[in-house]
């Protein structure tokens, strides 16, 4: 039954999971012409984790979700809705239902949401709408990707960047609304700067009909344009979310950006005048894990005791689409 008195949203209970296999920069030098210095100077990345069989998005997302559910102090049967933010499902028809079954969340509606590296922020805002309207009381939000499946390991512009992982949070209905402000943006005219496009061949099924069939190209990216886009648009969208939250930059306790590149993280923090000790970054250890990067960094900071209840967090995702967005929230109930 809907509780008409709980139309706010809390963000509590976190979990994360990464694959067992580590690929450091030194090993990458055996695949492409590069060096540890070249990679770290340009990206800040030292290593990344890669999912190898039998690991999958399902196994990583399920592990992260179990941790988040336990941390939130609820049971899988209490979950009403599962949102999986991903661009790399095990099944192109969707992965969320498989995770629902693995968790035993028998009452939950489950579906995938695709917004690439912005997926977790878009998912957070989407979950909030279901709770604020009184439709659902407990939402499990997962961000997870296995981008190593779609990397050209001979392209040093992209293969050095990406890693695999999953992170999750539980969003319960709450008397006070802990999602303080947000702003979401899209610009499809810049789609060609970062994509994972369909690569088709054809199969003749009749003399006049040739049906497209095929797979996808590896990830392609114009790094300079994506960098320029991120350092310009991300501070702007965070400012807009802060304005909606009636907060100033000085009131932020932590900044958690999509972990794409340490230079981007540093540039955004500098433009917002956020000091280094308030910036959470783990890109050096995991690389760009797309929709997983924000919840993975969040969970690590919570478990390390950095993030405490009532801390105000500014977060922003940005990437393919092109999409970008920011959310300002307080951790815990």
UniProtKB/TrEMBL annotation:
Keywords (A to Z) from UniProt: Acyltransferase, Cytoplasm, Fatty acid biosynthesis, Fatty acid metabolism, Lipid biosynthesis, Lipid metabolism, Multifunctional enzyme, Transferase
GO MF terms held by the record: 3-oxoacyl-[acyl-carrier-protein] synthase activity; beta-ketoacyl-acyl-carrier-protein synthase III activity
Domain Beta-ketoacyl-[acyl-carrier-protein] synthase III N-terminal residue range list: 111-188
Active site: 117, 258, 288
Statement: the UniProt record of this protein carries the keyword Transferase: yes
Domain of life: Bacteria
Gene Ontology cellular component annotations, sorted alphabetically: cytoplasm
CDD domains referenced in this protein's UniProt entry, alphabetically: KAS_III
Main enzyme class: transferase
Beta-ketoacyl-[acyl-carrier-protein] synthase III C-terminal domain residues: 244-331
Catalytic activity annotation: 2-methylpropanoyl-CoA + malonyl-[ACP] + H(+) = 4-methyl-3-oxopentanoyl-[ACP] + CO2 + CoA; (2S)-2-methylbutanoyl-CoA + malonyl-[ACP] + H(+) = (4S)-4-methyl-3-oxohexanoyl-[ACP] + CO2 + CoA; malonyl-[ACP] + acetyl-CoA + H(+) = 3-oxobutanoyl-[ACP] + CO2 + CoA; 3-methylbutanoyl-CoA + malonyl-[ACP] + H(+) = 5-methyl-3-oxohexanoyl-[ACP] + CO2 + CoA
E.C. designation(s): 2.3.1.180
Annotated metabolic or biological route of this protein: Lipid metabolism; fatty acid biosynthesis
ACP-binding, as annotated region: 259-263
UniProt GO BP: fatty acid biosynthetic process
Function: Catalyzes the condensation reaction of fatty acid synthesis by the addition to an acyl acceptor of two carbons from malonyl-ACP. Catalyzes the first condensation reaction which initiates fatty acid synthesis and may therefore play a role in governing the total rate of fatty acid production. Possesses both acetoacetyl-ACP synthase and acetyl transacylase activities. Its substrate specificity determines the biosynthesis of branched-chain and/or straight-chain of fatty acids.
Domain notes: The last Arg residue of the ACP-binding site is essential for the weak association between ACP/AcpP and FabH.
Family to which the UniProt record says this protein belongs: Belongs to the thiolase-like superfamily. FabH family.
Description of how the protein assembles with itself and partners: Homodimer.
Name of the protein described by the UniProt record: Beta-ketoacyl-[acyl-carrier-protein] synthase III
UniProt gene name: fabH
């Amino acid at each position: 039954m809907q509780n008409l008195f709980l139309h706010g949203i809390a963000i509590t209970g976190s979990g994360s999971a990464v694959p067992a296999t580590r690929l450091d920069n030194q090993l990458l030098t055996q695949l492409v012409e590069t060096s540890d210095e070249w990679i770290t100077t340009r990206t800040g990345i030292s290593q990344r984790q890669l999912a190898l069989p039998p690991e999958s998005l399902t196994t990583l997302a399920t592990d992260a979700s179990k941790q988040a559910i336990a941390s939130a102090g609820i049971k899988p049967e209490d979950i009403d809705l599962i949102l999986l933010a991903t661009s790399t499902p095990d099944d192109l028809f969707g992965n969320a239902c498989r995770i629902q079954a693995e968790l035993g969340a028998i009452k939950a509606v489950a579906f995938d949401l695709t917004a690439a590296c912005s997926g977790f922020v878009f998912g957070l805002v989407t979950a909030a709408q279901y709770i604020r309207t009184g439709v659902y009381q407990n939402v499990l939000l997962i961000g997870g990707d296995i981008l190593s499946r779609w990397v050209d390991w001979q392209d040093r512009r992209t293969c050095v960047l990406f890693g695999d992982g999953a992170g999750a949070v539980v969003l319960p209905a709450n008397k006070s609304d802990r999602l303080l402000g947000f702003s979401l943006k899209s610009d499809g005219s810049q789609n060609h700067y970062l994509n994972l496009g369909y690569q088709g061949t054809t199969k003749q099924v009749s003399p006049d009909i040739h049906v497209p069939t095929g797979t996808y190209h590896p990830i392609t990216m114009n790094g300079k344009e994506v960098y320029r886009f991120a350092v310009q648009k991300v501070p702007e969208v965070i400012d807009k979310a802060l304005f909606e939250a009636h907060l100033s930059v000085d009131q932020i306790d932590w900044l958690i950006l999509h972990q794409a590149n340490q230079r981007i993280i540093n540039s955004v923090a500098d433009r917002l005048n956020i000091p280094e000790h308030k910036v959470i970054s783990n890109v050096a250890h995991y690389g760009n894990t797309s929709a997983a990067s924000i919840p993975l960094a969040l969970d690590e900071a919570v478990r390390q005791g950095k993030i405490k209840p009532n801390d105000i967090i500014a977060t922003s995702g940005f990437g393919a689409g092109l999409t970008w967005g920011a959310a300002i929230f307080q951790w815990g109930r």
